[in-house]
Structure formats: C-alpha cells, structure tokens
Specification:
By secondary structure, the chain is an alpha+beta fold. The chain folds into 2 domains: 31 residues, no CATH class; 184 residues, no CATH class. It contains 4 helices and 12 strands, in the order E-E-E-E-H-H-H-E-E-E-E-E-H-E-E-E. It is globular and about 60 Å long.
Length: 227
C-alpha cells in the first residue's frame, strides 16, 4: 500500500491496472489488487457479505443528502472517510436482505418528537411536536432541514429487487421551533414508481437546525417506523 500526498496526479478513485486507488482526507491511497481469489461460500462468510452489501447501499443513500453528509463529517475520525464512518455505525444493525428499523441516518442527536408519521404512495408525512420541547435552540438557528430515507420492501413482483431505498429532503426557511409542524416531503416521479412496486416500507427520519447561511447546528436522532 502507498499513500500519495499532494496533487501531482490529482485525487484518484477506482482501478488502475493491478492497483486500486481511493482518496481520504485529500490523500490518495493505492494498493495492489490480488491476482486471483477463491469465493468463500461458508454460511457465516456469505452472511457478512450480504450485510456488507446492504450497509454499503444504505450508506451511499445517506451520503446523497447534503445535510446528512455534513452531520457525519463532524464525527468522522482522521484517516477514515465519511462513507466508512456511516458504514461502521450501521453494519451491526443491517440484516442480510435489507436495512432495519435499528439502522440510523444520524449519529445520535436530540430525540425527535414525532406524534405520527407515514409513507404514502406519493409523499412522506410526519406530525412533529414543538422541537423546543426536545432541545434548546439559539437565535442563529433559523432554518430546518428534514431528511428521510425510505426502504421499500416486499415487492409485488418477485422479479423486482427485494428492496429499494429512496432518499428525500425538505428545507424549511424561517422555521418556528416553538410550534408543532406538519411535515410533508413529496416523492418525485421516479420515487413514486418505486413506491408502487412494494407493499411495505421502513422510514428513517431526522431533522437538523441550520443558520441563515445553511450551516447545520443541531440535529435529531433517527426516528424509525416500519409499515
């Protein structure tokens, strides 16, 4: 393995001949790929590979939401990527065939006071109690970012994937943290098509307060619901 500092060759990621490259904290790390390998079909090893794939898919979708990426960046350690940090926190909670209600999209945070929540064919809804009942907000915290992942499961057509994840976000300017709020996040066209193929879902929801210039200040823990 070699670590390259500076940007002589730029940030690299992927395969280059018999080498693989990835970039962590601005450093390009290169390692030799094995010339060959034998696939291990031991049940315990297969289970780990399956959980690995599920957790990697979940982590990728969490990273697709800018507010969540910013949150995870604040807790990652030196020399480890944001993706790997999310993966590390979630691996033990994933099942072999899909994410679970124990998976998280934020690393802790204040308890999100949800009265009711639902995933419909075209939207996500949640009735939030006043957030100042769960945390103290400073005057600089003026906006709200609501972020959700929905894992759709149990397809009506057995030929479809066993699960699919969609990621959704909504930015609410000039948010009133002292009042209850009826949150609605509309699904886009592609997400509606995904929702129509499945009979069950797992909702993972979180909110974050932001300054006027978009910086995350506080965030909630993950609220989960299976339907």
């Amino acid at each position: 393995m070699a670590i390259l500092n500076g940007n002589v060759i730029g940030n690299m990621r992927g395969k280059l001949g018999n080498l693989t490259a990835r970039t962590v904290d601005g450093k390009t790390i290169m390692a030799a790929r094995p010339s060959s390998f034998n696939v291990n079909y031991d049940p315990a090893v297969v289970e780990v590979r399956q959980k690995f794939a599920v957790t990697a898919n979940l982590s990728k979708n969490i990273l697709s939401l800018a507010a969540l990426e910013a949150i995870w960046k604040t807790i990652k350690g030196s020399g480890i990527s944001v993706f790997n940090t999310i993966f590390k926190y979630n691996f033990s909670y994933s099942s072999t065939d899909k994410p679970t209600v124990d998976n998280i999209i934020t690393p802790g945070g204040f308890g999100l006071p949800v009265d009711t929540a639902a995933v419909d064919a075209d939207k996500i809804t949640a009735s939030l109690l006043a957030l100042n009942t769960a945390a103290i907000f400073a005057p600089e915290e003026v906006n709200l970012s609501a972020n959700a992942l929905v894992c759709f499961t149990d397809p009506t057509n057995p030929d479809d994937a066993p699960y699919q994840i969609v990621s959704c976000t909504k930015e609410v300017p000039n948010f009133n943290f002292t009042q209850a709020y009826a949150l609605q996040i509309d699904l886009d066209v592609k997400q509606k098509l995904v929702a129509a193929k499945y009979t069950k879902n797992i909702l993972l929801l979180s909110v974050a307060s932001k300054t006027a210039d978009g910086k995350v200040v506080q965030y909630s823990s993950t609220y989960p619901k299976a339907s």
